[in-house]
Amino acid sequence: MTPSSAGTFDGIHAILYALYDSQEKLDRRAMRRQVEICLTCGVHGMAALGLATEVSKLSPTERRTLMDWVAEDTAGRVPLALTICGASVAEQTEQVRHAEQVGADWVILQPPPVGSFSAAEHIRFFGRVAAATHLPVAIQNAPAFFGRGLSNDEIRDLVAQHPNIQMIKGEGPAIDIAGLIQRTDDRIPVFNGRGGLELIDNLRAGCRGMILAPDCIDYAVRAYDAFRRDDELAAERAYRDMLPAVVFVMQGIENLLCYGKRLFGARAGLPIHDRAPALRPVAAGDAMVARFARALGPYETFRRNEQ
Predict the structure, then answer these.
(1) What residues form DSSP beta bridges with 212?
(2) CA atoms of 66 and 233, how far apart (whole Å)
(3) CB neighbours of residue 179 within 10 Å
(4) Which pLDDT tens digit goes with each residue over 155-185?
(5) Which residues contact 251 (CB under 8 A, 6 or more apart)?
């Protein structure tokens, strides 16, 4: 699948967790199972190497390995986005080249995780990386998570100066996303994340879709599909069913990696192992994971009930 423009991308895209074995090595079987679950749940796209994939804990070799695995397992069935993290233009460009080689459909650039620079410097940085690829490029604008980001006006300047930057991956409240869409005259597709918080209001605001970790991905797909067929009552019901679990896991990125990943594991029947340093679960958190997993049910049960 090789879309020619960002207009092809919408819907609920799964951003995969990095799943490890008991020796803290990437677990090939578990990663393949995660992709299979997401595809079975009807996701509209696949993504990897973002914050949920603990990209900063992965070596360059491991990042390339995950690109290979996810591309192989997705096999063109849905569009594939790969997030690019690196401290220099050269480092990010090298990863973009590998994304191209494995058949990614688009890439998402994170700001360089070094220093404190002006918006103009970030715009130049993103522009140089974007100019090095034929793939559609998105920018992950998440100041709450990265400690740096661009304003709505700066994003408007960025996309005006660099036409290959065709999408924004936001991480903020629905009202902020609505403001971005309005300020850019709805000319650039915007995705949100945040585990699916305010999912329906994001769609009402004009958000193209959501990029979410897979712990509640089946409910998010159900909500999105219902909204797009103008059944807002069904969309709200699906969102209401997932919301308590989303609020629980989205208390911060480390909380997501600890408990969101365990919620996914409980629903998928997969053991979960951490890679140090990591937030370690406590008994109360484990009990909440078990309760939410029972309420949401196994992924296979959900799909059977939908058929």
Answers:
(1) 14
(2) 38
(3) 15
(4) 999 999 999 999 999 989 999 999 999 999 8
(5) none
Tokens of 152: 């709505």
Question: How long, in residues, is the chain?
Answer: 307
Domain tally for the chain?
1
**CA–CA separation, 268 and 289 (whole Å):** 13
Beta carbons of 116 and 146 less than 8 angstroms apart: no
Whether 1 is in a domain gets the answer no
- Tokens matching residue 175: 């009202």
Q: How far apart are CA 102 and CA 46, in angstroms?
A: 14
Task: Kindly state whether residue 11 falls inside one of the protein's structural domains.
Answer: yes
Each residue of 89-141: pLDDT tens digit?
999 999 999 999 999 999 999 999 988 899 999 999 999 999 999 999 999 99
Classified as helix, coil or strand, 271 is coil
Going from the C-alpha of 33 to that of each of 46, 201, 275, the distances in angstroms are 13, 31, 19
CB contact at 8 A, 274 and 244? no
Q: What are phi and psi of 212, to 5 degrees?
A: -130, 150
The pTM of this model reads 0.93
Kindly state whether residue 298 falls inside one of the protein's structural domains: yes
Q: In which domain, by residue range, is 30 found?
A: 6-306
Write the DSSP symbol of residue 163: T
- The domain that holds 155 is classified in CATH as 3.20.20.70
Scanning the chain, the segments in alpha helix (DSSP H) are 28-40, 60-74, 89-102, 119-131, 143-146, 152-161, 174-183, 199-204, 217-228, 232-249, 253-255, 261-268, 283-296, 299-306
